[in-house]
Structures are given as C-alpha cells and as structure tokens.
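Handout, tutorial session.
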Amino acid sequence: GRVKGLFPDPEEEGAGGPPPAAPAAKPPARRAPGERRLFLLDGTALAYRSFHALLRTRLTDVQGRPTGAIFGFTTTLFRILREEEPDHLAVAFDPPGPTFRHAMYPEYKATRERMPEDLREQMPRVREVVRALGFPVLEVPGWEADDVLATVARRTSADGTRVYIVTGDKDLFQLVDDRVTIYNVLSRGTDAVEILDARAVEEKFGVPPDRVADVLALMGDSSDNVPGVEGVGPKTAVELVRRFGGLEDVLARAAEVEKPKVREALVRDAETARLSYRLVRIPCDAPVDFSFADAAVGDPDPARVVPLFEALNFRRFLAELPRRAGAGREAGRRYRIARTPADLQELLAELRAAPLFALDTETTGTDPLSCRPVGLSFSTGDLSAWYVPLNLEPSIFGGPPGSDAPRVLDALRPVLEDPARPKAGQNAKYDLLVLRAAGVRTAGLLHDTMVLSFLVDPQERTHNLDDLALRHLDLRKIPTTDLIGRGKDQVTMAEVPVETVAEYACEDADATLRVLRRIEARLPGSGAERLYRDVEMPLVPVLADMEERGIRVDGAALEAMAASLAAREAALAAEIRSLAGEEFNVNSTQQLGAVLYEKLRVQGGRKAKRTKTGYRTDVETLEEYAAHPIVGRILEYRGCAKLRSTYLEPLPRLVNPRTGRLHTSFSQIGAVTGRLSSSNPNLQNIPVRTEEGRAIRRCFVPGEEGWVLVSADYSQIELRVLAHLAGDPGFIEAFASGEDIHRATAARIFGMLPGAVTPEVRGRAKAINFGVVYGMGEQRLARETGLSTREAREFIDAWFRTYPRVKEFHEGQIALALERGWVETLLGRRRHIREELLSPQGGVAANARNNAINTPVQGSAADIVKMAMIAVHRRLAREGIGAFLLLQVHDELVLECPADRVGGVAALLKEEMEGVVSLEVPLVVEVGSGANWLEAH
C-alpha cells in the first residue's frame, strides 16, 4: 500500500506552488468543485527529451551506468505531482517492434535513427520508476504511446474528467477539446509550462484541433517519414485547410488553387495525402486496460522506492520521501531554544569554548539585504544545536513582542564579530549579509560547506544543504516547504511557531558542522586545499562587501535607452516585413521559418535545417545566412529585443529602494571553470560587441557626487596563461617583448615583418589566438573570418607550426585526463572529464576534448582574477583610500572612488593585479576611469 506524506495534501499545503514563470505559459484552469484531474504522460517522448537535454552531464547510478534520461523523466514526474496535484496519473510507452502503421506503410519512421544505446539501456528503469511510485505503465503491442494516450483520454474525458496530456508532440494537438488539454514541459533550465487548450492550439498551429491531422497529412512529417504532398510546407498546408476545410475538401477543390506547383502536387499526390492522413490520425480505440483505481495518486511505499532511488543515485528525490514519526532523525539529538537570558549566556559560553561553530540564520525572505532575520542557530558538536529566536513571545528579556532582536544581537555581537573565533556556514555569504543588514559584521568565517563541496566534488550537480546532508550523512532534512508551504498560501518564517522553526534551524546548523567534517577530511586528497583556504574562503567576505555596497544605475538613462530600442525594434520589424513582402509576426518562429525558407529561400541550394515543429530559426542557424539582408535585420531585431527585455526594463525593478543601488549576487559555484557568475542581474552576459550592448554600461554610474568609476581589466589573460602553461618559446617571447600579440602571430605565421601585417590579416590572427583557447575548429574560424574552410584549416595548421608546444600541451591535457580522470588549474581546481572523453556519443567526446584543453587555461585565469580581488580588497582596506570594489565581470574589476584619488587607485590596482602571481609572461592590466562604466572601460 501507499504511505501518506510524499506529495502535498491540498488541504494542508495549499495550491501546490506558484504558476510556471514564462510569458507563453499559463497554469491549468482552477479545479472546479468535484472535478477529477487525470495526467497522462508520454513516457517515451519525455525520456527522449530528457536524454538529449542531459546528454552532456555525468549522471550515473551506483554501478556507473547512465541515468540522465531516468533523472530528467523523474524530475518532470515529481514536478507534476508536486505542483499540479493530479488525482490520477498514468504513463504510456511505445512498445518494441512494429505497429499497425508499419503494416499500412512499411517506410513509416524508416528514416528515424535507431534509439541510442545509452537511452535504450535506461528505458526499462524509466518504467521501473513509474511502477515503484505506484502508477500504471500503459503499453500495447502494435500501438504507439500516442494511440494509447488518445484512447484513455477520450474514454475518461467522456465522464467529465479533466485530462492533461503531458507531451510536446504536435500530433496529439488533434485530441484537444473542452476536456482534454496539452501540458508541454518546456526546455531545460526553465520552469515554463505551455498549456494548450483548443484556442491555444489554433493560435499556435493555425487551425483548430479537429483540423490538425489534415494539416499534418498535407505537409508530411520528416521525423516520422510521413510523405505528405510534395512542395507543401506548414504555411501552405494551413492556408489550404483554412480556405477549403478538411483534406478531402482540399483535394476535391485542388483546381481552385492559384499556385501551379501546389495545384499539380495536390492532384498528383492525392493518394499519398490520404495515406499520410491515415498515418497521422490518432485513433481512440487501442485495446488498453485502464482503471482510475490503479492510477490514483497517493504516496508510494518508501520500502519500494528508496532502494531503487538509492541505486540510481537519486538523492534529491529521496529528500521528498515521507518524514514519518522518527524517520530520518538520529537518536540522541540535543536541540535547545534560548528562551531566557540565562540560556543565552550558556550558549555564549559554549561558543567561546568551541574551536569552531556552525552558524545559520532564518529569515523572512531570500534577498539578504531586504529580508528580516527571524532567528539564529548554532552548533558546536554532533547532534547538538541551539536556536535563538528574535521573535519569541514572551520575549527573552521581558519586553514587548518584537523587542528582542536588538538586545539578542548585541549579546551575540562580541562572539560573531570576533575574527579569532572560527565559524562555518552553508552559503555563508547570505548569512553575512543578513547580519550586516541587522547591524552585525560577522568576522572569522573559516568554512563554507557549499564552496567546499563544489571544490572537492565538482562532478556533483548540486551543493545545497539538503543534498549534502543526504549525500554525506544519509539524513533527509526537513523540507523548507514543510514549514512555510507553497504558492499563494506560503508564509514567512516569522509566522511559523518558534518550536517548529527551532527544529528546522538546529538541524541546519548541526548538519552543516557534520557535513563539513566529512568533506574536509577529503580536502587534502582533492588537490584543492590551497585554493580553498587561500582563495575561495577569503573571497567570501570580499563578495559580501561588493554585494552590500552595490552600484548605482541611472534610471533616466535606462528609460531613454529602452524607449530608443523599442523604436528601433519597431522600425526593424517594419523593414523585415517589407523585405519579406508580406505581413507576418516577426516573433513567431513558425511564420518566420516559412518566410525565410519557403518564400525567400535564404538557404539557397542547401537543405533547410528543421526541428520537430518547423524550421530552425535560432541565432546560430541564422548567422549562416547573415549575408542575406533580411537575416541581418532579424538578428539585429532580436538583439535589440533581448537587451530591452533582459536588462533595460528589469534593471530599474532590481534597484533596492532602501539603498537606491543595484545589488547583484555573485556565485562561486556557478561555473565549473571557477569563474564567478552573477544573477539579479547577470552582468556577465551584457553584450559588448554591439553598440547597444556597450551603451548599457553607460547607465552604471558612481553613487557619490564627485566620484568616478574605475575599471581595471587584465589584457589577454587567457592567452598569457596559455603561453605559461604550454611553455612555447615563441609564444612567450611575443608577450615578453611587449609587442602586439596578434600582429606578432600574423608576422610569424606568414613570415613577414610586423609592420607589413594588414588589419585584415591581424584580425584573422586574433580570431585564432583567442579561438585556440576554446578548441576552435576550421568551420567556426571560417565563419568568423570569412575564410573558406580549406583556408581556415591551413591557417590553423600554420598557427600550430608556429607555436608547436601549444599543440603538445593540448594533446598532453587530453592524455592526462584519460590517464587520471581530470584536468586541473594552476591552483589545483579539478574538472573530471574522463567519462565524457570515452563517450560513444561523438558530440559529447568532442566537447570533452575542448574542455580538457580550455579548463586549465580558463580556470587558471579565473583563479588569478579571484586572487587579485582579494589582494586589492586587502590593500584598499589597509590603506583606507576610500575606494570600493563593486563588480567583477570576465577579467575586469570595477570600483568607485573620489575623482581626486584616481591616480593612486590606478597605481594600486596595477601593482596588486600584475603582481598577484609570477608567470613566464608578464600580466598586464589596463586601468581607466570615467563618469560611467563605459567611459571607464
């Protein structure tokens, strides 16, 4: 039987989570009183999508077998159960062997590639997950999953059940009606869901659901090898059906079609079209057994699920299993609440006597600079912790409700602010900022389990405390949502009873300290000990200072630029329509694809690239046709739209109303190479190659009157690191002499004097100089420089003949990765890539070879930048110059200081940044200043 507790009870938990956050998505309609909801999943399609989405990950089970498809499928399944709260759920799969469609048309799906072996191996365990969770697996020999889903949907919706079919397959659009809806989980990395009712299907596909099969029959489907009518694409098929009606009506009135080629094709291919209709039409009479009782959503038996998920290494899902009485709780816990001044003194004495203690804060929100602390928890030993509430009633000191916070924090301040008292945390930068906002400047941070885990176990995908506790302690922590709920009924920690918060908070501090000891014991063997102690941990308070200070943005300039870009977008859209010779929605990929590839034929004699739903119109594909006037305008239009929607419009909303500044959040665990990443906003992605992208930097300004921004940027740091690592004499000499490295490279390759190198030739040398760091191949170089593929190949060969030790370095890194399993940076940051190098998937292996080459270079450069940040921060604090670090973007540091101190600050920056490490080539830093970031850079 099933055990209650895995999935939220609507009466206890509320609405089950916020609606998906995507402009095109909308949540399912609210459940009508007494309405029954059934979710039907296309298991084969979801497994395929998950397999390809997670192809580059290294997800394996305890035996080393791949689990990417199983993991992605299970993630989707859990999400639906958690957020949508269905009453019933079932999963359909394609059976092995041919179906009735193959008997009808032997070439059906003949062009489809064989299922990848890694995916084939995972499919039985995808089914096993479904069964272990207690849901029926629907599979009928000779019938596809689509047919089974359609049959169950028709059968169950007839009695009033609301049915959601979880799929991205357009064929199933034909099933949609007032009781059947498509629920399409969108791309990885977003929470977006596309809900398609009958109206949405018509908006997306161009015809109502009952005409989808007619359109598919006319246009065919290359992925299933459905022939259709030759020369009839999606746009023409939709036009024909909208004008004439169903397929038979279209064929009967073919003589009325104006375009001769289409008219002739309809007459010639009439029987093919009828065959195609029989192939794409989904019948609703598959011999499938289904009962609501079997598909009822309850909670699975952990005795069945836990062993399976442990074998699959699915620790994150185990964290959602029931916490029955005593489940996951170790005997001997001693968790206490400080309720009196005497309790507080006992805690302080314990903290002073401890060689190290773990600290955690509970707050009213996730933004450390705007939320309010609710309490603090501390742990000095295993299974022992204290919780100090700031909202206790009656109050600790006998004052009115809410009066404790200042006095409690004052009592804790001497210990918290003492740098001689070592402290540990999980994502400790957040706690530092929370306490700073409350007036306490915590010092003495020695450990952060999140940062430590990222260095010791870089191959792991998650480093949050819930997963760390499960991974290292076999402890399933109390989920945060058990306390505060989800969605519209979510509350803050301040509204949760103190006793409930205390257990949760004490468990956090206790788990942090115990996880720390487990991971720290492995630190010496990881090769990252120096990196952790000398770089990553000293960097935490530096980043906290930068986030706390923030940077001012010019709201008026942002608004003016947004208006200007909007006008430019409108003008470009009009120009695009003019070049197309027709009115269409420039933002519709289907309409755009039809215009580009069917009407204008920008692909020339080549075959147009397609996806399952139409033509490819992504940036990378369109750049291949950039010489065509309309494509250039489309790329410019998209660039403007992205700048406006990603930066210009959101930035003012991110300004903190209390400080008037933008406080971006920096992450030390966002990139495997060790580069910092940022969010709210992501400053790393502000484009610098376009005039509009650069202009955004003009909106970042000093926060004080009479101050300026200062930019200090490493010049060609990755190339210099490569020269050092490869030890190539020619490369080193070019840098050591101080000459222009790109001009010097061109001169060496072509055997000419540097003065004879033209700008065009220098540009090609620059492209390959930077491209070699990333393993650039001949095709990409040709695309970026305008060379032919043969010329690009010859250019690359000449480059490696000029700098032969670089080629040896590349080959050596790949050999090292195969031998020991990883590559590493100058400071010992490792990246494990042997499994990818040995992957049978050619693309995965090629990507791994590039990673083996560029990780030591990019990672070492990232480590150097971090060391420079620490050195600059310490020097500024020591000398009290009054300059402050604000941002770190790529290889650049941005500061603000009084205008009359720029000279001293510039000298300090060059001295500290250029001298932070000693390489075979000099590090060079370029410093500028100005009234805004663009001027300074």
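The second record follows below. Compare its token runs with those of the first.
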Amino acid sequence: MTMIFDNDLLAYNQGLELYEKQKYGPAKEKFEDAIAVIDDQNSEISANAHFYVAECALELFHKDAEFLLKEFIGNYSSSPRVEDAWFLLGSYNYRKKKWEKAIDYYNELQISSLVEPRKSEYLFKKGYSNFMEDQLDEAAGLFYQMDDQTSLYFAPGTYYLGHINYEQKKYATALKSFLSLSDNELFGPVVPYYIVQIYHFQEDFDQVIAYGKPFLEDKDVKRRSEISRVVGDAYYQKEQYKQAVPFLKDFMKSRVAKQKEDYYTLGYALYQSGKYDEAAEQFSKISYSEDKLGQSALYQMGEAYLKAGKKSYARNSYRSASRLDFDSKIKEDALFKYAQLSYELSYDPYDGAIAAFKEYIDTYPSSARSEEAYDFLVNIYLTSKNYDAALTSIEAYDNPDVSLREAYQRIAFNKGVELFDNHKYKAAISYFDKSISYPQRKSLTSRAHYWKAESYYYQGSFAQAVKAYEEFIYSPGAALTPYFNLANYNVGYAYFQQDKFLEAPSWFRRYTSVRSEKDEVKLSDANLRIGDCYFMLNQFDGAQIYYSEAVKIGKSDPDYALYQKSMTAGLLKRPQDKLIGLEALVKDYPDSRYLDAGYFEIGRTLIALGEDARALENLNKVVKDYPGSSYVRRALVSIGQTHYNAGKDGDAKATFQRIVKDYPTFEDSREALIGLKNIYIDKGDAAGYDEYVNALGFVDFSDAARDSLYYEGAETQYFDGNCKESVEAFTKYLNRFEKALFKLNATYYRAECLARMGQTDEALKDFEFVADQPKNKFTEVAVLQVARSAFAADNYLGALAHYKRLSLIGEYKENLLEAEIGQMRCDFKLENYTSAISHATITLESEKINNKLENEAHLVIAKSNMMLGSDEEAITYFEMVIDKGATGQAAEAMYLKSRILFNADDLDGAETSIFNIVEDFGSESYWVAKSLILLSDIYMTRGDLFQAKATLQAVLDNYADGGEILAQANSKLATIVGIENQPVESEDEEILIDFEALDELLAPDSSSTNTPADTLENE
C-alpha cells in the first residue's frame, strides 16, 4: 500500500493510515473525502479509493458492500484491484454460506495468476463450496491441486479430499490422505474412524484390530464407540467371538444410533461365547423386524434359549420364525423345533404341538423328518390334555389306523371324565359315547359305560342312568373294574330317586352282599335306603331289620337310622322298643337334628303307655327348647288333648287357644278348634264356642262346606300332577273365599305349580306370602324358594336375610346346608368377607358336601382372605382347591395364587404357577387365557417385550370366546407395539469438521490483498 504525498490527497493518505489500523469506519469516510477532491476519476488513485471504500464497507458488514465491489469491477475493469475484488466477493459469499454465488465469483479468477497464500485459500474455499453443493468431483479436483504443505488450508483440503474418496469408495486413495493427517492437531482425532473403516472394507481385519485398538483408550478421538464397533466386528469376522463381545458391547452402550445388524452381530457373538441369555436379549430387540434378518434373529433367539434351558421361551421364538417366509430352511427347521418343544413341554397352552406337527407333515411330506413328526403326533394324542384339539385332529383322518383309534378311544374317555368333574354331564355323555364307538380296549369301554351312567344320574335322568349302569354291569371286563359293585349301589339309588321302592332294594342288597366291600359309609347308607324302601312299602318288619343293621354299622346318619328304627318299632306295636330307641337317640346324639322329633315321639309314646306326667315333660321340652320347630304345634295339640283327657279343661282350653293364636290358619288350628269345641260343649256352652269362633279373623264357618268343596277340587288336580288346572282352580278358590279355610295350603300348592310351569315371578309372590306367615309346615320350603329367587335376581341383601331365617327354622339337613351356602355366597357378594369365611367354614363341616361345593367353600375362604390382605392364608386355601384336580375351580384358584405371587414380586413363582395352569387345566380356556395375560405382565416387568408379545398373540390366535379377554389382550399388545415403535434416542457424533470451527482456525492466514490484514477476520 503506497501513500501519495500531495496536499490535495491528504484525505486519501489519512484513509490508508486508518485502514492499516483496521479502523474501517473512519477510513471509509476519508476515502470518500478523497474521491470528492480527485479531479481524474479514471486515475489509479481514484480506482484505489473506490476499492478501499467497498472493502471497508465489507469489513463493516454494510449491506451495500457487495454492490460497491461489483460497481468497482464494472467501473475499473482494468485495475489490478479487480482480482482482489473478485476474491473478496467469493470469500464474502463463502462466509455467508452462499456456496453457489461463491463458486461463481471464484470462477472469475485464474488460478495461474494466484500465488501463496491466496492460492491455497482459493483452492480450499472454492473446493469446499463445491463440496457443499455436492459437486464432489470438482471439489476433489481443487483439493488435489493444493500442494503448499505450509498452508493452514493444506490439512483441511487433504481431509476433505480423503473424505470424498472415502464416500466414493476409493479407499486406497482415501487411506493415503487420512494416514497423512494422523499427527495433525485438528484432524488427528478424526481420521482413525475413517482408517479403521477402510481397513474393514478392505477386509484387512488384522490391521483393523492393530490400528484401531490403541485409539480406544484416547478420549479425544472422534467416534470412539464406532471404532469399537468396527474392531469388534473385525474379531467377529475372524470368528473370535469372545474377543469381539467387549468391543461390540462398548459400542452398544453409546448413544449412537444402532442398526438392526448391530444387535444381531452382538447377539451371535454372545451366543458363540456361551452367553445365551444375553444373546437372546439382543436378538429379541430386532425380533419384530419382518425381514430375513428378523427371521434369522428369531431362529437364533430360539437356539439361544434352548442352550440356556429355557424351552418355553425357545418355543415362542421358533414359532415366530416359522411364520415368516424369507428363509425357507429356517422356516422348516423352526417349525419342527417348535413342534418338538411343544411336545416336550408340559406347558403348551393351545396344544400347538398337534397343529405344528400336522402342519409340518402336510407342508413337508418329503422331508426326512416327516416320519419322525408322525410318531410324535401319535404320542401327543395319547398324552395331550387338550382333548378337543386332539380329537379334532384325529377326526380329520379318513381311515385312522389302530394306534389312532386307540388314541381316540382314550382321549374321548378322558374328555368325558373332565367334563364330568366340571359337572357338565350332558356334554360328558356325548364324549363317553364317542369313546364307546371305538371299542379298541374292552376295559376302557366298560369304564366309559360306567361314567356315562354316572353322568345321567347326576343330571337327574335316573331312568337312563339305570339303563346305562346295566350296560356297564353286563359289559365284558366290567367285573375287573373298581366300579363293579358300586354300580349296584348306584342303580339302587337311581330307582330310589324315582320313588321305585319295589325295585331299589334288590340292587342295594346286591351291594351289601359282596363280602369284600369295605366302604362302611356306603354299607350303612345302603341298609338305610333298603329300610326306607320297606318303610314306604309299609313292610315294617323288613324295614326294622335294615334300620337295625344301619344302626349297628353306624357310619351314615346313625341318628336318623336310630330314629327310623324306633318309629318302625312303634308301627310294629312295640312301644317299649320304640321308647328305648328314642331315649337312646336324645341321650347319645345331643346335636342331632331329630331331637325335637325324638322328644315329641317320646311324649306321644308315653301317652299311649299311660305315663302322662312324663309325656307332658317331654312335650313341654319340645315347646320350650325348640320354639322354631314344626313339632311345637303338634306338641301343643298333644299337651292340650292330654289335659282334656285328664279332666283339666282349663289347662286344655288355654293350650288350644294358644295354638289358635300362634297358628291363625284353619288347617293348623283345626285340631285345636275341635278340642275347644268339645270343652265348650261339655260345659253346655255352645253359644260361647260360636262367639269365640266368629271372633276369629282368619276363618269363616258360615260357608265352610262350599269352601272345602272348592278347595278339595283344586287339591285333587294338584296331587294328580295337573299343574295348569290346579293353578286355575286354586286361583278361583282364593278369589272366591276372602277368609278361605285352606288359604295357606292353596297358596303354597299354587306356588309350587307356578314354579314348575316356569312362572317364577308369580310363584315368588305366593312363596313370599307363605314365608311371611307364622311357622307352618310349608315355611321352610317357602323361605328357601324366596331366598333362591332373591339370589338369582342379584338381590343379595334380601337373599341373605332369608337364608339367615332358614338357618334358624330349618329342620332338614339339606336345607340347613343350603342356608349356610347361601349366606356364604351372599356375604362374599356383599364384600362381608369375614362373615363369608365363617359360613364357608361351617359349610365345610357338613358331611353332605360334594367336591364342587367343597372347592367353592375353599375358594370363598381363599378369595376373602385375599381381599382382606391375608395372602398366605389365601394361598393355603387356594392350594386345597388345586389339590382336588382338573376343574374350573382349581384353575381359578391357581390363577389367583399366581396373581398373589405376581403382586408380591415373586415373578418366578408366578410364572411356574401359570405353567402349571396350562399343564393341568388346559381345557379351562378362560382361566388359561387370563393366566397367559398375567404371564405377559410378568415378561413386561422383566423387560422381555418379545415373550410378552408372543404370549398375548397366542391368546389372540386361539381364544375363541371373545369378550373382555380379547379386549385386554389387544390393549396390552398395542402398548407393546407402541413401545417398540418409540424412536430410540441417539446422538451421532459428527465426523466432518464444522464450517465455523474451520473458518475460525484458518482466519489468520486469509488475505484479500497484499496487506497483512485479513479483510474477513472481523466479519
């Protein structure tokens, strides 16, 4: 820069001084002042002044800077400063990242006219602009021309040249560039990533390891985690899997975005290193990928789980792999292994083994393993507990061979027994018939006949039961079964239930005549039933013999046996024997339900023996100690008659009047009214009797004859079994007589018929009326019917009240048991858990409960304890139900036990429990599905999305009943899919040096003119 010593150009020189001091604002003003006084605007000094004005504007970020430079070029095209102006315009747009404009301005320069350091700056900046415009070949050509190794632009140019060659897969050339930068301060930390990648692309895995490993200890090296991945993959390619694992793991810990191949590579390396659980975890992360890699990952996950001994997990993996079509070999092998594992595992919720082996045989009939698959299939038929699936599969064969026919016979029988255990008797019969239709094994055919008969019996089809029992008894091989003699007992009961008292005894005697029979309870009961039959046939001598035998054995209702023996003695005119028996009853069985009857009959017997005082003592005991008993009214009648016969009219009258007051119906008061009538007549006070009777509100004797006539007609229809006619007749009777003499009887009988006709609402009204009356002979049954109806209508409070009343007034064991059961159920429904436990406990103490009821009571106790927070106690009772075997109740119990274990974070225990549900109760589809959904929760808690997803998919694929089960499974599956689809947070470390950092580094070397100041450094 040259100063001109001319006083007229003082302003120009002052501008140069300020320019050199980088005071661009004042300098610009001085240059503008100089332009104003220069006479020759075409002179060199005028051109220079205009150039400096434009350059100062550029340094000051003035918006017109670019315009001023272009104006200068246009006005002074022959000035030596034009080259500087073009360079400034290019560099200005370079800094503005206006790459295309920068290229255009740089194109105005001739590289041959440039010298260092501007030449290197020009080549780099123009090359970088081409690079940013994706003009890679042009950029590479410019970077390649940079030969001044002393320039600050040389290293960046070399770097970008290497990068372009790397991207264009010119690895040898790129490697040369990157290696030359290894010691560069800026690029030294960057190039190792490129270098190891290039060695890897060249499959020089030893060099990858040798070169890359040292850099993994350098925290400043760029993309260290990715270098670790490349080193790990080099070991992987050399099949040195154990050495590969730590490097691959190091990469997977980083926040760098992962590819599906990364998970697969680490998974396979872990698998080959014997770390099977870890391997499966990696494979599972890409198990959702529906492509060849995803199918391979599923298969390898199965292999890993199999090696780890987790066969159930492996099976799910193989199943998923077999459903994809990207690799046919994997598909076939996965299907076979899935089928094989389903066979080996007791845990096979939907009997996938049957379908899988059949699918394998059908799809790959020429496979070397098809025969093996068929052998497996036959064995599955014989061992499967999913009987329906097995039967359906066998039924698909047109001509099943002997082995399949034998399997079918056994499976159908087992299905029938399962249905029988679940009290589904009609369905059970159909399966026993299927078993009988394949009579391959005689002993099994006999057993099918027996259980078919049992099914008929328990569904109340007693005539059909008799026929089926006889088919069993006379079938070949029946005598060798443990049911042979029991069938005699059961036939006896089937006749007994039909009131065929003539036919029943011979069958019970067959049972008792077998000397080898050891079941004393049934022997005692059989003798009781024979006695009952003879009793009903008025053959009291025979009845006495068998009741005596029942008393002697004493194992089944001994108090009832003694009572009946005593009553029979009375009918045989042996009052002393009757009295001895009854007194033994009240003495030896203080908790008997027959005590009220016993004391009453003792009283009656003593009256017959003329021992009135003792008789009254026993009769009064009935009235005092058993106020809710139906024998109270009868005892009062006997007391009143005894007083009357003894001439104690006052006592007799008071007693009879008490009866009329306490039992205000004609039917219940008839005997008392007769007694009162006799007392009044004996005193010659017939008018007094009429006055007394007319004052009664419940009876109208003025129309008694017609009343009785109407009633008897309706009653005849009832006892003839003509319900429709009897309902009409009873209704007419009750409507005709406002104070009907037989209102209670008529209402009860009408209720019975209405119930039989299915008119439950109308029947309930009549039962409620009867139940609300003072204690009568119908009260117990009426209260029971009202309680049942209320429970069926979900009126648990109302049902509970009536069941409680039944427990207080009931006399029959069966009804008292139902009262406890009803209270148990109502209390549980009403969340009165402590009370529910109490009634369930009482229910369990009954001798008459069956397995189903016992299980229900245990379930109520268990679930109540569960709701009360007593989990250990709950599990104890759940296990009692579970121990009873394959029923829906046991499946529910095991499911709820699993829930308790899950909520207690005992995931392993819960998982094992669920596996047991599937193994032991596979036919309980609802509880199996509920359990599998819970199993998916276990897998989710463990973070195993694949197993959770596979488990839910099994429910969706196989559960046929819909409802809340499928809705819940779909909801949970959607949650898993949502988790899988969530983007993984990642931070890719930029390998290219960013523009600002590069520009800042290179700024000191930038030069637009021959001055030492960089015209862009202050921009």
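Points raised in discussion: Confidence is low (pLDDT under 50) at residues 1003-1019.
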